[in-house]
């Protein structure tokens, strides 16, 4: 029963996410078609039998169909020779029909109409993220190395805590999150980091380590890792009443700098030292009002169940530590710029990932289809409205990008044909276009089957 309930919830959020994106895509085609004087006969959300619809004053039939996996608009004269409608005998168009026929428009007009769909998805994504950055805010952590894991790629390359990363492979870095996302997309590759160390700028090559990480869709994927932690000094923000820290006399504002003589530069180091010492008295040195103060503290012993069912004990000190990560609300113009950069990063990251899959350096199991989108949309919705909006915007960029691929039946395939037509001075022959579209349809269907099987194997079964 739970499985069916989960499926129903995932399907609901999938439709909530996909329907606006399909509408936006087709609306892009529709608006530019109407702007160029093309008559639009049908605007459909979904395929198959019509569930409900209405006609507007210009004669367009707006409808919702039974199969909600996409949509389309049908323009008068689109891909119809000699002006005939489907099922009718060939005939010459009247002068009035030519004025509103898609195929009778100039090449540049047809190209803009086709390009408008993917462009609308990009514009929508940028608008969504810009609104998110204005009203919710953007996560910001300074691009400073907080700690370096022992024997990690960063340690081998010579990175140190306090280093500020200025750029990666010539691309400037403004947030620590940019470092993590770039490294994640480049497993096993060498990155050139430009860093600022105490005012001196230097360049260090770092080869990312290939590690497995759990994605939001619960699958384990191979990603790149540098072995650095974001800046989070072990400064106590709050001491929990009745805890081991309270009993030891630790205070809010104390910065823990040593445990049993070992330096503590990062919250992660504090967490590991305490967790590994349940019931053991530790000598904790803090900086308090400019003075070193050493206090004995005995972490409480607590238990947690491991994935294999075994019980593991760990120590808990009972403090809350602050973070340098902020959620910064941006101004409208700054938000649009940040959203455009975000869309560019998603696009280049997607192209890089596809290239890595083709080259065999990235596992193709990472490709997902409708099932993956449904699962992640449900998970994102459970995390909050901001997460869901961000995922919707990301899928909108992906939808726009995929439709620009030069594959017949996709918008990019039409644009490719228009490019050939511009070079030749005339369109490709009817038979060449027909075979091209058949091949393109076969490719798209094959990809859909592949990603669906991928979803079933890695996300369901």
Main sheet properties: 4 strands, antiparallel
Strand residues, percent = 25-35%
Q: Largest beta sheet: what is the strand line-up?
A: 6-5-7-8
Mean pLDDT: 87
What's the helix count?
12
Q: What is the number of domains?
A: 3
The total of beta strands comes to 20
Rg of Cα set: 28 Å
- Residue windows where pLDDT falls under 50 for at least 5 positions: none
Overall geometric form: elongated
- Amino- and carboxy-terminal Cα gap: 16 Å
| Helix/strand class | alpha+beta
Q: How much helix, percentage-wise, in residues?
A: 40-55%
Write a brief structural summary.
This protein is an alpha+beta fold and 461 residues long. It folds into three domains: 2-136 and 373-441, no CATH class; 139-230 and 324-328, Roll (Pdz3 Domain), CATH 2.30.42.10; 236-321, Pdz3 Domain. It has helices spanning 2-35, 95-100, 107-135, 153-157, 176-184, 244-248, 267-275, 332-359, 370-383, 385-403, 411-424, 430-460, and strands at residues 40-55, 61-75, 138-140, 147-148, 164-168, 171-172, 190-197, 200-207, 209-214, 220-225, 228-229, 236-239, 255-259, 262-263, 282-288, 291-297, 300-305, 311-316, 319-321, 326-328.
Task: Describe this protein's structure.
This protein is of the alpha+beta class and 461 residues long. The protein folds into three domains: 2-136 and 373-441, no CATH class; 139-230 and 324-328, PDZ domain (Pdz3 Domain, Roll), CATH 2.30.42; 236-321, Roll (Pdz3 Domain). It is built from twelve helices and 20 strands. The chain has a four-stranded antiparallel β-sheet. The protein starts with a helix and ends with a helix.
């Amino acid at each position: 029963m739970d499985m069916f309930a989960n499926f129903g919830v995932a399907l609901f959020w999938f439709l909530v996410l996909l329907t606006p994106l399909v509408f936006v895509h087709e609306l892009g085609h529709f608006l530019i078609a109407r702007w160029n004087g093309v008559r639009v006969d049908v605007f459909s959300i979904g395929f198959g039998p019509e569930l409900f619809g209405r006609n507007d004053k210009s004669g367009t039939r707006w409808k919702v169909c039974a199969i909600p996996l996409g949509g389309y608009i049908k323009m008068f004269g689109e891909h119809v020779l000699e002006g005939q409608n489907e099922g009718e005998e060939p005939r010459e168009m009247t002068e009035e029909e030519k004025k509103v026929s898609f195929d009778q428009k100039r090449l540049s007009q047809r190209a803009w109409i086709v390009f408008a769909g993917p462009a609308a998805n990009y514009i929508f994504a940028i608008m969504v993220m810009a609104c998110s950055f204005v009203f919710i805010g953007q996560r910001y952590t300074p691009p400073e190395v907080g700690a370096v894991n022992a024997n990690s790629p960063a340690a081998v390359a010579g990175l140190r805590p306090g280093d500020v990363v200025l750029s990666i492979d010539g691309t400037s870095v403004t947030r620590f999150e940019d470092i993590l996302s770039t490294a994640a997309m480049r497993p096993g590759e060498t990155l050139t980091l430009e860093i600022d160390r105490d005012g001196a700028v230097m360049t260090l090559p770092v080869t990312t380590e290939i590690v497995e990480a759990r994605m939001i869709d619960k699958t384990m994927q191979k990603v790149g890792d540098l072995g650095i932690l974001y800046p989070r000094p072990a400064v106590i923000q709050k001491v929990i009443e009745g805890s081991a820290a309270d009993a030891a006399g630790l205070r809010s504002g104390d910065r823990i700098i040593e445990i049993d003589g070992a330096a503590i530069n990062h919250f992660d180091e504090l967490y590991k030292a305490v967790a590994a010492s349940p019931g053991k008295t530790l000598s904790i040195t803090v900086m308090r009002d400019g003075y070193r103060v050493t206090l004995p503290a005995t972490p409480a012993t607590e238990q947690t169940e491991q994935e294999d069912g075994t019980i593991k004990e760990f120590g808990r000190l009972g403090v809350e530590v602050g973070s340098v990560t902020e959620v910064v609300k941006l101004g409208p113009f700054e938000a649009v710029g940040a959203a455009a950069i975000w869309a560019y990063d998603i696009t280049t990251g997607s192209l890089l990932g596809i290239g890595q899959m083709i080259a065999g350096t990235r596992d193709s199991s990472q490709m997902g289809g409708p099932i993956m989108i449904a699962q992640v949309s449900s998970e994102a919705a459970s995390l909050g409205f901001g997460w869901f909006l961000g995922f919707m915007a990301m899928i909108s960029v992906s939808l726009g990008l995929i439709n620009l691929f030069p594959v017949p039946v996709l918008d990019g395939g039409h644009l490719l044909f228009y490019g050939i037509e511009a070079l030749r001075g005339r369109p490709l022959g009817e038979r060449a276009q027909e075979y091209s579209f058949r091949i393109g349809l076969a490719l798209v269907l094959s990809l859909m089957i592949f990603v669906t099987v991928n979803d079933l194997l890695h996300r369901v079964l």
